[in-house]
Write a structure and sequence with these properties.
about 85% helix
């Protein structure tokens, strides 16, 4: 059985929740920006892997050497080097995004 006090409390909580909900446009923009930052951070590592993989596959086709591990090690080394060189930039982008996200919390919630 639900008594009047529980019903009133439920209505107050629902009213409180509804006043702080995102609009669809705000949620879409927030997700779009998060995906764009993620793609921007992944782009250097993925492009280095694709370029090294393409070069190794051309070399394997020319030499007719079909060893699977031959392409893995150079790609791994190239990816680690790119991560090492782009780490300061990646951290700057991530920190700037986080600061922007935290600064926009009051505006997003309507406060």
């Amino acid at each position: 059985m639900i008594n009047q006090r529980d019903l009133r409390t439920t209505r107050e909580v629902t009213k409180y929740k509804l006043s702080f909900m995102f609009s669809i446009d705000q949620a879409t923009e927030l997700c779009r920006h998060a995906v764009m930052v993620t793609l921007l951070l992944c782009l250097p590592v993925l492009s280095a892997s694709v370029i090294v993989g393409l070069i190794i596959s051309i070399a394997q086709a020319v030499t007719q050497l079909q060893e699977q591990t031959l392409s893995f090690v150079p790609k791994l080394i190239a990816m680690m080097l790119v991560i090492l060189f782009t780490l300061p930039w990646s951290l700057t982008v991530l920190v700037d995004y986080s600061i922007e996200l935290f600064e926009n919390i009051p505006k997003t919630l309507g406060g």
